[in-house]
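FAQ: What does a multi-protein file look like?

Like this. Sequence, then C-alpha cells, then the next protein.
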Amino acid sequence: MKKMLLRIAFMILTLMTLWYLDGVMCVKDEHGINQAQAMYYQPRDTIDVVMLGSSHIDCDIDTGLLWKDFGIAAFDYCAAEQPLWNTYYYLREFCKYQSPKVVVLDLFSPARFKEDYQYDYLRHNLYGMRFSLNKLEMLMVSAEPERVLDFFPGFAYYHERFDSLTMEDLVYPFTVHRKSLSNKGFTPYLKVAAQNEPTIDQKYSGGLTVKSEVYLSRIIEYTKEHDMELFLIVTPYITVAEDELVYNRVREIAAMNDIEFNSTNFDYDEIGLDFHTDFNDDSHLNYWGARKFTDYLGKELKERFEIPDRRGDERYESWEVHYREIAEYVKANSM
C-alpha cells in the first residue's frame, strides 16, 4: 500500500511539474497565441459574435467598446496573417465551446497572401490552440509533410525561450485564468503614423487562390449548417488594386450565397477616419482609429442582425472588466 501511494504521489508530482513547466515555457504574444488561449477561459455559450481573421481583427475591433456602447458580447479570435484554412479550423474549435449567433470574417489575408503554405506566422496560429484532432488537421493542411515536425509538438520549440524568461512567465500558470477571462482579444496600439488615403478604382474581380476559395466555401457551409449568420468584412487600411481584385471576387461569392459583405474601405468618411491620426501603420488602425471603426461596426451589426444586449447580466461581468482594463492601459501608456 505504501509503494502504491508513493507511485501515485510521484505521478501527481510529475504531472503537476509538466503542467507548470508548460505554462512557464509556452510562447505568449498578442499576435494570436494569447487570443486563442483566452478563448478556452470564456464562460461557455456567452459569446454572441466571434470575429475571425487576421491581425486586422484584434487591432481594429475594440471588443470593450462593443460591450460598453452596444452590449455586444464579442470576441476577437484571430491571428496574424491568418489564411482561410486556419480560420476554418479556428471556427470549428470555437464552436466546441461557444454558440455564436454571428460570425464576422475579415478577408485581408486571402487578398494579400497567395501561397498555399504560409509559414511566417504559422506558429502564432497554432500554439494557442489546445491539442486535439482539429488542431492536427489544421496543421496538416498548413504545412507540407516534410515540415510538419518543424511545428509539432509545440513544446519542442519552447527550449529557445530559456534565455528570455521573465517573472511574468514564472507566475503565468497561476494567473492565466484571471487574465484570460477578461481578455476578449482586442490589442490597442498607441502609435500614430500618418497615411495617404488610397484611391479605389479596381473594376475587375479575381485573384482569390483555389485553396482560399475552397476554404471560404467550407466556412460558408459550416455557418449555414450551424445556423450562424456570416458577415464578410474588410476593415479600413491602405488598400491596393491587387487586394481590391480579390474583394470584388468575394463580393460575387457573397451575392451567390446570400451573405452580407461590407468592404469598409469605401466608408472612410462615414467611419470618420483621419488619415493623419488614426493609423498605427499602413495596415492597422491605432486605438483611436479602432474606436471610430468599432462604433461604425457596432451600428452595422445591430442593424443587420438580431444581437442581444447583455449589459446587466452578471454572467458577462468579465466584459465590463475587459472594458476597464483597456481604458486603464491606454491611460497609463498614452503620452
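And here is the next protein:
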Amino acid sequence: MNSIENLKNIENKIIILRLDLNVPIHDGKIIDTSRIDKIIPTLNFLLKKKAKIIIISHIGRPNGKKIKELSLEPVSLCVESMIKKKVSLLKENIFNLNKNNIFINSKDGIVLLENIRFYPEEETNDDEFSKKLASLGDIYVNDAFSCSHRDHASISKITKYISSYSGIQINTEINALKRITSEIKKPVTCIIGGSKISSKINIIKNLIPKFNNIIIVGAMANNIFKYKGIKIGNSVYEKNIGSAIQEIFSYADKNMCKIIFPIDVKVGKKLIDRSIEKEIFDIEDDDIILDVGSKTLTEIKKIIDNSSTILWNGPLGYFENENFSLGSSEVAKYIADKNEKIFSVIGGGDTVAVINSLNIKNKFNFVSTAGGAFLEYLEGKDLPGIKALS
C-alpha cells in the first residue's frame, strides 16, 4: 500500500480522509473516545502538511435514512476539542457539494461530512456515488481499518477514481497483525474466548499452522467439555458443533499446535452469584461455568512465560460480574507486566473493555478496536478496503 507518510507537497491539497468514528453515544454524549484517540496522529500529520481535510465517517446503522440521533455532531465537537482546530460539520446533501464550495466557510480547513450511511448508495457500493465522493478531493486516505472489511463506496470503490493512500493508524494495525500471522516471533500463543466457538472456528483453523498454543476459554470451552463428555450443568454451549471441534483437534495434532482448555472452573447457580471453584469433573446439574479456576490460571501463566508473541481475543469468563472477572483481569495484568519481553496484540470489544477497566491499555504493543475487520483478517480473508489500496 502507498502510505500517507510518503506524501509530499500536499499544502492546500484536499484530502478525503475515511475514518471510523463510530463511537458509542448516549444522550448526545460520547461514552468511549478510543476510536477518535487513534486517528489524531493522522489528522495532526495532515494539518502539519497544511492540507485541507474532508472527513468521512459513520455512526450506527441508519440504513440510508437521516436519523437525528445518529448525527456526527457530537463527534465533530470532540475532534475539535482534541486537535484545537475548528471542525465544521457539513449537513448539506453530498450531491450538492463540489470541490470549490466545501471550504468557503471553514476557517481551519477541516470539514466533516454528515453520517455517510445516511446515503443508501454508501452500503450498496454505488459507482456514481463513489465517483461523486472522489470528485470532492485531490487525494483519498483510508485510515479506517475497522471498516475495511466492508465493500462500501467510501471504503473500496472510491479508490477507482482518485489517488489513494493508507493512513497512519491503518498501517499500524496491519503491521501489528502481520507480526502475529506472518512475521511471527515464536513461540506464539493465542488466547481465544467469548461465547460462540462457531464464530471463531475459521480463525482457529487459520492460526493452527502458525501458532504453538491455542488456549480456548470462556463459554467456548464449554463446547470442548461437552465434546469430551464432561458435564457442564446449565452452562451456555452450542449444539451440533462436535464435528467442528474434532476437526480442530485433529488439525492441531497434524500441525504440532497444542490446544489448551480449562482444568478447573468457577461456577455459580446464577449470573449474579458469588463464585465457587470446582474441578471440571465436579460440575453439578444446576451449575453455570462462568470463569476459569486457579489451576487453569497457573497453567496459562506458564504458557505466557514461554511465549514470545501473544494474541488475545475474548474474555476468560463472565467479567461483567466481578466475582467471575478474576481470570480475565489476572491474564491481562500478567501479559502487561511482560510488555518488554512479549509482543502482545489485543482485540475484541470485551477484551478491550477488560484492559480499559484496569487502566493498562498502554502496556500492550497493540490494542485493536477493529472488531469484525480484526477477526476477518485473522481468518485470512481479503479485506475489500485493504485490497483496494494494494
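Q: Is there any per-entry metadata?
A: Some entries carry free-text notes. For the entry above: The two ends are 5 Å apart (CA to CA).
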